[in-house]
Design goal:
Helix content: 25-40%
CATH topology of the largest domain: Rossmann fold
Shape: elongated
Structural class: alpha/beta
Distance between the termini: 62 Å
Largest sheet: 7 strands, mixed
CATH class of the largest domain: Alpha Beta
Order of helices and strands: EHEEEHEHEHEEHEEHEHHEEEEEEHE
Strand order of the largest sheet: 5-2-1-6-7-9-10
Radius of gyration: 23 Å
Number of domains: 2
CATH architecture of the largest domain: 3-Layer(aba) Sandwich
């Protein structure tokens, strides 16, 4: 049995958990490829990726190419003499990179492929009201998330679970799935299955300001799913109008009230501690939100120092 020499590619916190599991299962990681450092925040302080921070702490060799086809980078990658590459939440690889190792390059994706290919699978599974999701390992090919599947693992989505909570559970599930995939490759027992293309495949496009805006003409269950599917990041948002003022607010947390009512859809109703927004077929009790220039806070805390008129509404 030939020992694996692994190059790991990833950037965010989700990838860190997988890299940690690989090391803890005594696999040799000969190099880590992650995003280049970049300035962030008001002070434009140089930030490095979560994967780089982990790699530095564990004294792993780090490569941060800006161009994955650059010959200097490719030579350095070849010199690592890896026979397997593992990719988690990175970017699309050129063929010269993913074809390089003897045992191939595989990716861990946070969905049950072929559904939810794309940049935000965890968010869209919740936004679309799915009751289950999972993780899949697959061999990379020349398209995005379309390669032959190796292993998958499934989990239920709780009806009140948000994207942050599901992210953490899928990271744990992904750790086991990646380690099992490595074991299959190492023992030469790996088997893969081609993805089947059907018309009903759901995708997971990038999140942006437009698709994070709440549409209050949708059924209240859909609005609720959008809020929890975008919490804690990048967060669903809406505008509040009151007394000729407009605020663009983020909603982090809400409770679903799935009951008919006689309130005007979009109207805001408050007590000293609670805020309820009427939908077309139910309502939402907003429990955590953020106003412009303020920190994220519980609604009761906001209402302690702010009052709304009877005409306040969301749009």
């Amino acid at each position: 049995m030939e020992k694996l020499r692994i190059v790991f590619m990833g950037t965010p916190e989700f990838a860190v958990g997988i890299l940690d599991a690989i090391l803890k299962n005594n696999y040799e990681v000969v190099g880590v490829i992650t995003a280049a450092d970049k300035p962030a925040g008001r002070g434009q302080k140089i930030n490095c990726s979560a994967v780089k921070e982990y790699a530095l702490a564990h004294e792993l060799k780090i490569l941060q190419p800006t161009n994955l086809k650059d010959e200097t980078f490719l030579e350095e990658l070849r010199s690592l003499n890896a026979n397997c590459q593992v990719v988690v939440a990175f970017r699309m690889l050129p063929e010269v990179v993913w074809k390089m190792p003897k045992f191939g390059t595989f990716n861990l994706h946070a969905s049950l492929l072929p559904n939810y290919r794309g940049a935000a699978p965890i968010n869209w599974a919740i936004i679309n009201g799915e009751e289950k999701t999972g993780v899949t390992t697959f061999f990379i090919d020349d398209k995005i998330d379309t390669g032959a599947m190796i292993l998958s693992a499934e989990t239920a989505i709780a009806p009140t679970e948000n994207a942050g909570e599901l992210h953490d559970r899928l990271m744990e599930l992904g750790c086991k799935t990646v380690v099992d995939t490595l074991a299959a490759i190492e023992s030469k027992g790996v088997q893969s299955t081609l993805q089947t293309e059907t018309s009903g495949i759901k995708d997971a496009p990038k999140l942006n300001k437009d698709n994070c805006k709440i549409d209050w003409t949708q059924p209240i269950q859909k609005v609720y799913n959008q809020i929890r599917g975008l919490s804690p990041y990048p967060t669903a948002w809406t505008s509040i109008w009151d007394n000729n003022q407009e605020w663009m607010i983020k909603i982090y947390e809400a409770q679903l009230i799935n009951e008919a009512h006689t309130m005007v859809p979009g109207s805001i109703h408050t007590t000293k501690k609670e805020m309820t927004v009427a939908g077309i077929d139910g309502s939402l009790k907003i429990t955590q939100l953020q106003f412009p220039g303020k920190k994220k806070m519980a609604t009761a805390e906001l209402l302690n120092g702010m009052q709304f008129s009877p005409n306040a509404k969301v749009v």
